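Mods, move this if it's the wrong board.
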Amino acid sequence: MALTDDTRYIEGGYKAVVVAAVLILMLFLMVSGRCYSRRLQKVMLEADDYVLVLATLFTFALCAIAITFPRIARAGTRSSPTANDSHGENKLMQASFISWMALYGASVALSKCAILLLYIRVFTTNNRAFTVAACVIGFLVGATGVATTVGSIFQCTPMARNWNGAVQGHCINKLDFARYTAIPNVVTGFVMLLLPMPMVWRLSVTIQQKIALTATFLHGTMSVILGDIDVQ
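Not the wrong board. Structure tokens:
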């Protein structure tokens, strides 16, 4: 028996809903827990905290689009839509696509910038090379985020061809674009991974604490790197 559009949505779309809902819950617990712990310690929020909160809000918005997009896409492919319905659905598809691309680029860049700001705050030092390196990486992260966002939105002419292959026009090679934009993201991620290691191992703490700090930084930065690789 052929599957209806609603059945396809129920069988496939629910996966996006579950993943997005779990991600929202995990992010909320982690970020709110961090902010609450700083309040208990009576420590003011720093720049990295505010950037992290902003990145989290952008990620929440991405999850919301992921939850609703299967329904939007299903509506856009109905067999006999009216002219008004088709126009409204195309506008909704366009808004969802552009919002996703803009939010994705911003959320990745902000997440990395939050980590870099944390590095600068934690490793307050006269080591000018460390601070300059962190700032240079931050600039590259921001530039990559902007380039990826703009390139993703305008990779097809006309733009509607991004979500509707029936529209006449042309697109750049999307696979190559994804590969090439992943390179700077992964490279900056690995540099961020290694950046604090010399500072950690110069701290006057026990070897066990150094190992624990190293594992903490590796875990956080690797999460961002793997996210770049997976999405790209």
